[in-house]
Design a protein that fits this description.
The complex is a heterodimer of chains A (about 190) and B (about 850). Chain A starts with a helix and ends with a helix. A three-stranded mixed beta sheet of chain A has the order 1-2-3. Chain A is mostly helical. With about 850 residues, chain B is an alpha+beta fold. Chain B contains 38 helices and eleven strands. The termini of chain B are far apart. The relative contact order of chain B is 0.04. Classes of the chains: A mainly alpha (about 190), B alpha+beta (about 850). Chains A and B meet through helix 5 and helix 8 of A and helix 1, helix 2 and helix 4 of B.
C-alpha cells in the first residue's frame, strides 16, 4: 500500500468509528467517500470495455471487505453500511451512465448491470432503465421499491433488508417477490 | 424499452401499471379457483388488463419455482381429494387452504341443492374428542345471522375432523377493502355489521375466538360474512392439536399473531371480551394497514409484545404505514374506540360486541363516542355521582344491565348447569326486551317502564341467583336515580341491600351497594343520612384494591361532608381521593378532575378564592381534555369553574361561560334537568353580583319553582333558589314577594341545618337587606348585626357573604346619618 492509501484508510476508519456512534456529519462524509470509491471501481471496470456488465453486489462487497479490514463491524453496522452503499452505488452507476451518454464516450455505451437476484440469470439491464423504473415503483409501492433497490444495488440479504427498513422478514419477502416481478416484467416488456 | 415506458396510453400507462401491480399483489393471497374468482371479479372482461396481471403472476411463479421462495404456503394435502365423500357431501374442487386445513367446494349427495365449503382439518381427533367436537358443532349450527356463514354439518371421518359451511362467494375482507379502495367510513360500516354478527353469536353463548382477516369474507354485494365461528374452540375442546402457519401453538394455546388477545396466550378465560379484542385487531389492520405489533410477526415476538406493552395508537400506526389521510381520520374517536377494544385487560374493553357496535355507529353518525369517557364501570357510577345523564346513555345502561347479566353466564358456561342459568337469564332479558319492541304492539314503552318491569320480574325470575339479582338491582337504582326517579331508586336500593345482607354478600358487593345508597341520599340532599353508608362503604372498599370504586365513594363522601359543614374532613377526603388517583393508571389519574372540582367549590365557600380558582381551572382543563364537548361531567365542571370566577368578582367573565353551559345542558339533558337548573341558579347568583337584580328575579323564579317540584320544598337546591329569588326580588322593588320567600327559606334552614351553619345567617342577611329596602331600618339593623356576627364566626371576615353584610351595614348607617358607624363597617371591607 502506498502512503496516501494508508492515510486514506485511517481517515475512513475514523469516519466509520464516528458514524457508528451516530454522528450525522460522519454519515454524510462517509457517503461522499464511498461514492468516490465505488464510482472509481465502476469506471475502472468499465474502462475500455464495450460489453462489460457491472455486478453492483460484487462491487459493494469488495468495498465492504476492504473496510471491514480497517474496523471490526457489528452485524447491524454491516446492514446499515450496505444500505448506505446501495444508495451510493445506484447513484454512481446512474451518474456514470448519464455522463457516458452525454459525452458519447465509449461509443455511447450504456452502463448495464446484472444481478442474479433479479431472476433472469445473466441478463443485463440498462442502469438508467432500472433507476427510472424503481422511481416509478416508488410511486405506488414505496416499500417494494426500497427493498428492490437495497437488494439489487447493495446486495443486502432479506434479513438485512428487514433490519434496515424495520420491517418483518415476512413483509420483506413478500414485497420483494412482487417488486422484483414487476421490475422484471417492465424490463423485458417489448417496445 | 425506454420508449414504451413514456407511453401514457394503453395497458402500459402509469396508472394502469400501478393498478395491475396492486391487483397482482392482492391475487397472490389466493390460489386455485379463489384466485380465478378474484381476478374475474376485478378485471371483468378487460382482457388486456387481465393479461398484464397474469404476466406478473407468471413471472412470480417461475421465480418461486426457481428459487424455492414461498409465494403461498405449500399444500400439506398435495393429493387431490375431489370426488371423496364426507357426510352427505361430495368434494368437487379444491378452493384453498387456510390455517387449519384445506378447503374444498362440495355438493350434497342426497339430491338436495346445496353448495357448501368443506374444510378438512389437518389434525386427528380421538373418539372422545369426536363426541365433544360433534356436540360443539351442533351448538354452532344454531347461530343464525346474515353476517355469519352458517355451519351446515360437521363430523370426523377416519380420525380427520371436517366441517361443512355455507359456501360464501367472496373476498377476504382485507383484499376487498384494498381492491375497492374503501374509505375509512366504509370500513367502519363493515366492522359495525361484523360486531352485530359477533354479538348475535354471543347471545347463543358462542365465542368466535379467532377473528382475523382470513376469517371474514365479503360478498360481491358488499355483505361481510364471518366464517369458522367457534371452530378453533370446538377443536380445542375436542383435544385436537392444530398445526398451521397462521394459527400457532403458544403455551399450549392456539393463536394468530397480530389478532390474538392476551388471555388467549397467557391462559386466561376466553370470553366475549376476547372477540371484542379480535374485532379491534381486525379494525386496526383494515384501518391502519398494519397489524397490531407489526414489528412482532413471529409468534414468540408477538407473545412478548402483547404481554409487555400496549398496542400503538392506530393513528400513529397509519402514519408509519404512510397513510397520512387515514391517520388524520383515525385521530380522536377511532383511536379511542380501537384502543378500548384492544385493552390488554379484558375488563377494560367494551363489555360486549354490542357496545362496540354502538360506538362504531356513534362514530358514523357523529354522535359522541363512549370510548372517550373513562372506564365503563366507573362511568356507571358517575351517572349518579354527577347526577347528570345524557338521555342517550340510558340506552347504554340498559344494554349493559342486560348484557352484563349474560356475560356472567358466558364466563361460567363451562358446565351444563351454568349454561342453563345463562340461558334462563338470556330468556329473561329477551322477554324484557320484547316488551320494549315496537313490534309487540306497545310502541311507547319508555326506559322508565322498562326499568320498572325489570325490577318487578327480577325476583320471580332470578330469585335463585341472589348476587346477580342484587347487582341488577344496584344498576336499576343508579339508573332510576340519574333519571330523577328517586322513590323507585330508593326501593331498588333497599332491595339490593336487603338481599346482600341476608345472603351474606361480599365486602365488594356491599361496599358498592352502600356507595350507591349514599349517592342516592346525597342526591336528595340528606347529608346526615348519607354519611353513615358512605363511611361504611369507604371502610369496606379500602382494603380491597378497587381504587376506582373507592375513589367514587370518597368523592361522594367529600361532597356530603362539605355540605354537612365538615369542611376539614371534606378537604382531607378529597385529598385522599386525589392521592389514590394520582398513583393509578392514566384513566384513574384523569379522574382527579372530580376531587379538584369538589375542592374548588369547597375552598370557594371558605373564601380561599385564589386556591379555589386554581383547582377549578385544573379540573376544567383536565375535563376538557378527557371528555367530549357536551359531556355532562364537563358541563358540571365548567359550571364550577364559572362559579369560582364569579365568586372572585369576575362576573363578566363568568356570565358567558354560564350561558354557554346552560345552552349545552338544555340541548343534552333538557331544560328541567337538575344539572341545567343548577347552572341557571349559578347564573342568577352571578346576575345578583352584577347588581342586575330585576333580571335575576325574573330568571330566578322559574328556577326555584322547578327545583321545588323536582326535589321538594325542603331540598337544599330548592331553598337556595328561593333564597336567590328572594334577594333579587327585594332588590328590584318586589319586596313583598321577596321577603316572603326569604322568610320561608330561613325557617326551613333553621329547622334542617345544625345551629351555627352559615346558610342560616345568609338567610338572615337577605332578610335584613330586604327590610332596609322596605325602610324598616330598626328591624333591618338587628337582623343585619345578628347575621354578620354569625357569618364572622362561621366563615370569617373575608367570606363573600360576610363582606356583603358589612356593606349592607355601611349603607344602613349612612342612610341613618350615622357616619361613624358607617366608617367603622366600611373599614372592614376588603378592597
Amino acid at each position: 500500500m502506498t502512503d496516501s492509501a494508508d492515510s486514506d484508510s485511517l481517515r475512513l476508519a475514523a469516519l466509520l468509528e464516528r458514524w457508528s456512534k451516530g454522528e450525522k456529519d460522519a454519515y454524510d462524509q462517509l457517503l461522499t467517500h464511498l461514492y468516490g470509491d465505488i464510482h472509481a471501481i465502476a469506471v475502472r471496470q468499465l474502462h475500455g470495455e464495450r460489453y462489460l456488465t457491472i455486478r453492483p453486489t460484487a462491487l459493494v462487497h469488495e468495498v465492504y471487505l476492504r473496510l471491514s479490514q480497517l474496523r471490526q463491524m457489528q452485524w447491524q453496522d454491516r446492514a446499515h453500511f450496505l444500505s448506505m452503499a446501495a444508495r451510493v452505488t445506484r447513484q454512481a452507476l446512474v451518474d456514470e451512465a448519464r455522463r457516458r451518454r452525454a459525452e458519447k464516450r465509449d461509443g455511447g455505451r450504456a452502463v448495464t448491470l446484472s444481478d442474479t437476484n433479479l431472476g433472469v440469470a445473466e441478463a443485463a439491464y440498462d442502469a438508467l432503465d432500472v433507476d427510472t423504473l424503481l422511481a416509478e415503483l416508488q410511486q405506488f409501492d414505496a416499500v417494494a421499491a426500497d427493498i428492490v433497490s437495497l437488494r439489487v444495488f447493495g446486495g443486502l440479504s432479506i434479513e438485512e433488508t428487514a433490519e434496515v427498513l424495520k420491517l418483518s422478514v415476512a413483509t420483506v419477502n413478500r414485497r420483494w417477490v412482487t417488486g422484483k416481478a414487476w421490475l422484471a416484467r417492465e424490463l423485458t416488456r417489448e417496445a | 424499452m425506454a420508449g414504451s415506458r413514456t407511453d401514457p396510453g394503453g395497458v402500459s400507462g402509469g396508472d394502469n401499471r400501478a393498478r395491475a401491480y396492486q391487483l397482482f399483489a392482492a391475487a397472490l393471497d389466493f390460489e386455485g379457483e379463489l384466485r380465478e374468482q378474484f381476478l374475474m371479479h376485478e378485471c371483468g372482461l378487460d382482457g388486456e388488463f387481465r393479461a398484464e396481471v397474469d404476466a406478473l403472476l407468471l413471472i412470480a411463479a417461475r421465480d418461486a419455482a426457481a428459487t424455492g421462495t414461498l409465494l403461498s404456503a405449500p399444500g400439506r394435502h398435495t393429493e387431490d381429494l375431489a370426488g371423496q365423500s364426507y357426510g352427505h357431501f361430495r368434494l368437487t374442487t379444491r378452493i384453498g387452504e387456510g390455517g387449519m386445513g384445506v378447503v374444498y367446494r362440495a355438493e350434497r349427495t342426497d339430491g338436495v341443492q346445496q353448495s357448501v365449503a368443506i374444510k378438512l382439518i389437518s389434525t386427528t381427533v380421538g373418539h372422545a374428542g369426536q363426541v365433544r367436537f360433534e356436540r360443539e358443532a351442533q351448538l354452532l349450527a344454531q347461530i343464525e345471522h346474515a353476517a355469519v356463514a352458517r355451519l351446515v354439518d360437521a363430523g370426523v371421518e377416519s380420525g380427520r375432523a371436517w366441517i361443512a359451511m355455507e359456501f360464501v362467494n367472496g373476498l377476504r375482507i382485507d383484499d376487498y377493502c384494498r381492491a375497492k379502495n374503501l374509505s375509512t367510513k366504509d370500513i367502519v360500516g363493515l366492522l359495525a355489521q361484523l360486531a352485530g354478527a359477533v354479538a348475535a353469536a354471543h347471545r347463543m353463548l358462542v365465542v368466535h375466538n379467532d377473528i382475523k382477516p382470513a376469517n371474514v369474507l365479503v360478498t360481491a354485494d358488499g355483505a361481510p360474512k364471518l366464517i369458522d365461528f367457534g371452530i378453533s374452540r370446538a377443536l380445542q375442546e375436542a383435544g385436537a392439536a392444530l398445526p398451521g402457519a397462521h394459527a400457532t401453538i403458544g403455551m399450549g394455546r392456539l393463536f394468530s399473531p397480530g389478532f390474538a388477545a392476551p388471555e388467549q396466550i397467557n391462559g386466561g378465560p376466553v370470553t366475549v371480551a376476547t372477540d371484542v379484542f379480535g374485532l379491534g385487531a381486525l379494525a386496526y389492520r383494515l384501518l391502519t394497514g398494519r397489524s397490531t405489533f407489526a414489528d412482532a410477526v413471529e409468534p414468540l415476538d408477538y407473545m412478548l409484545a402483547i404481554s409487555q406493552r400496549d398496542v400503538e395508537l392506530p393513528s400513529r400506526a397509519a402514519l408509519k404505514a404512510g397513510r397520512t389521510l387515514e391517520a388524520q381520520q383515525l385521530k380522536g374517536d377511532l383511536d379511542a374506540i380501537l384502543s378500548k377494544a384492544l385493552e390488554r385487560d379484558p375488563a377494560r374493553r367494551y363489555v360486549s360486541a354490542i357496545d362496540m357496535q354502538e360506538d362504531l355507529q356513534n362514530y358514523l353518525t357523529r354522535r359522541p363516542v363512549k370510548a372517550r369517557v373513562p372506564t365503563f364501570h366507573y362511568r356507571l357510577g358517575k351517572f349518579v355521582r354527577r347526577n347528570t345523564l345524557a338521555v342517550s346513555l340510558v340506552g347504554l345502561l340498559v344494554v349493559a344491565l342486560i348484557v352484563g347479566g349474560t356475560i356472567v353466564g358466558l364466563q361460567r358456561s363451562r358446565t351444563a348447569q351454568a349454561r342453563d342459568v345463562a340461558a334462563r337469564r338470556a330468556e329473561f332479558i329477551e322477554n324484557l326486551l320484547a316488551s320494549a319492541d315496537p313490534g309487540s304492539g306497545k310502541p311507547n314503552v319508555t326506559v322508565a317502564a322498562l326499568l320498572d318491569s325489570a325490577a318487578q320480574q327480577l325476583d320471580q325470575k332470578l330469585g335463585g341467583e341472589p348476587l346477580v339479582e342484587a347487582s341488577m338491582l344496584g344498576m336499576i337504582a343508579r339508573t332510576n336515580s340519574s333519571l330523577g326517579r328517586y322513590p323507585e331508586a330508593m326501593a331498588a336500593s333497599d332491595r339490593e341491600l336487603a338481599i346482600l345482607r341476608s345472603q351474606g354478600g361480599g365486602a365488594l358487593e356491599l361496599g358498592r351497594a352502600l356507595s350507591t345508597r349514599g349517592d342516592l341520599l346525597r342526591e336528595l340532599g340528606k347529608w346526615s343520612d348519607a354519611l353513615p353508608p358512605l363511611q361504611q362503604a369507604v371502610a369496606l372498599l379500602k382494603p380491597l384494591r378497587v381504587p376506582s370504586d373507592l375513589c367514587h365513594a370518597l368523592d361522594t363522601l367529600g361532597f356530603v361532608l362539605a355540605h354537612a359543614d365538615q369542611d376539614k374532613a371534606a378537604e382531607s377526603t378529597y385529598h385522599e381521593e386525589m392521592s389514590i388517583e394520582m398513583a393509578g393508571d392514566a384513566q384513574l389519574r384523569s379522574e382527579q378532575m372530580h376531587p379538584l372540582y369538589g375542592l374548588a367549590i369547597l375552598l370557594g365557600d371558605q373564601a380561599r378564592y385564589t386556591e379555589a380558582a386554581e383547582f377549578g381551572r385544573q379540573a376544567f382543563e383536565m375535563a376538557r381534555k378527557a371528555l367530549p364537548a357536551d359531556h355532562p361531567d364537563l358541563l358540571n365542571i365548567e359550571t364550577a369553574y364559572a362559579n369560582t370566577l364569579a365568586t372572585m368578582h369576575q362576573s363578566t367573565a363568568a356570565e358567558p361561560l354560564f350561558r354557554q353551559v346552560i345552552a349545552a345542558q338544555t340541548r343534552v339533558l333538557g331544560p328541567e334537568h337538575k344539572a341545567t337548573l343548577l347552572t341557571k341558579l349559578a347564573l342568577v347568583a352571578d346576575l345578583l353580583d352584577q347588581h342586575r337584580d330585576a333580571e335575576a328575579a325574573d330568571s330566578g323564579l322559574p328556577v326555584a319553582r322547578s327545583f321545588e317540584s323536582l326535589l321538594g320544598a325542603d331540598n337544599l337546591y330548592a331553598m337556595g333558589a328561593w333564597h336567590q329569588y328572594g334577594v333579587a326580588a327585594c332588590g328590584s322593588h318586589q319586596e313583598e314577594q321577596g321577603i316572603a320567600a326569604l322568610r320561608r327559606v330561613a325557617a326551613a334552614r333553621q329547622r334542617i341545618y345544625p345551629q351555627g351553619t352559615w346558610v342560616i345567617y345568609s338567610s338572615q342577611l337577605g332578610i335584613g337587606v330586604c327590610l332596609y329596602h322596605m325602610r324598616q331600618y330598626g328591624e333591618s339593623e338587628s337582623a343585619l348585626l345578628a347575621a354578620v356576627a354569625g357569618l364572622e364566626t362561621a366563615r370569617g371576615p373575608n367570606f363573600n357573604r360576610t363582606q356583603d353584610g358589612y356593606r349592607a351595614l355601611r349603607e344602613l348607617y349612612a342612610t341613618l346619618g350615622k357616619a361613624d358607624d358607617a366608617a367603622r363597617w366600611n373599614a372592614k371591607l376588603v378592597p
